[in-house]
Design brief:
Elements: H1 4-7, H2 22-34, H3 40-46, H4 52-77, H5 83-89, H6 91-97, H7 105-115, H8 120-125, H9 131-146, H10 149-154, H11 162-176, H12 186-209, H13 213-241
Helix pairs in contact: 2-13, 4-6, 4-7, 4-9, 4-13, 7-12, 9-13, 11-12
The structure holds pyrroloquinoline quinone.
Domain Thiaminase-2/PQQC: 25-235
Keywords: Oxidoreductase, PQQ biosynthesis
Protein name: Pyrroloquinoline-quinone synthase
Amino acid sequence: MGGRTGRNGGDGMTEMGKPMGAFEARLRSIGDERYHDRHPFHQLLHGGKATVDQVRAWVVNRWYYQSRIPMKDAAFMSRVEDPDLRRAWRSRIEDHDGTETRDGGIRRWLKLAEAVGLDPDYVASGVGVMPATRFAVDAYVHYVRERPLLQAVASSLTELFAPKIHAERIAGLLEHYDFATPETLAYFRHRLGEAPKDVAFGLQWVLDHARTPEEQDAAAAALVFKTEVLWAQLDALWHGYVQPGHIPPGAWRPGEGLR
Ligand SMILES: O=C(O)c1cc(C(=O)O)c2c(n1)C(=O)C(=O)c1cc(C(=O)O)[nH]c1-2
């Protein structure tokens, strides 16, 4: 007897027009309450109120997240015994690393770095990353490496909420900043196509594998954990570069790493 029948009560609809179970609705409500689109740093950035140095600080720090995503996906795949699951997962690594003939997200992020006036080699070196960013992102990689596969997959489901923030970011940056062009924001445009494919698979996998109430609680906790990984990165940026502006020793300072 799985807990699914008990918890998947059937309220609301998915974007695909299918009835949504209570467990899926619970996962989605975590995003409504906790996703980092609600963070004031994003409101500053998307509303055109971030200074160029605040944008640069975001680009430098967010690089660390970008650079670790394919590493966490490789860590995940190294633990998977089912070839079908590995096959479904591996495009995530190519989306970021690219192929011999196609650029990936990592290169696109460095194009954005150049567009905001940063030296891409400096950004790629990771030298200016804040300690709190590093701790939060490393916690995500460790989580995916160590937790049961159900939680590892569930922790990626923040991507359910990412297309909305990417669309808002593209529109907001294009409206407010000279550096923003379709080319320099290509990273986010590509994610609009990549994330839905990944998350449709990940969500179905979690719905299929979280059968008992305990498993559903564990999957929901994984998603909460991930929202905290994202939130903590923006809290660190706010503290360092907005209010009160305490830049930690060793972290990027305005004027450094310019091209
Ligand atoms: O800009 C964003 O707000 C945002 C959020 C997230 C996310 O929700 O974790 C990802 C991304 N972007 C992203 O670009 C990306 O490649 C990505 C991969 C993953 C993941 O957990 O595997 N999340 C995200």
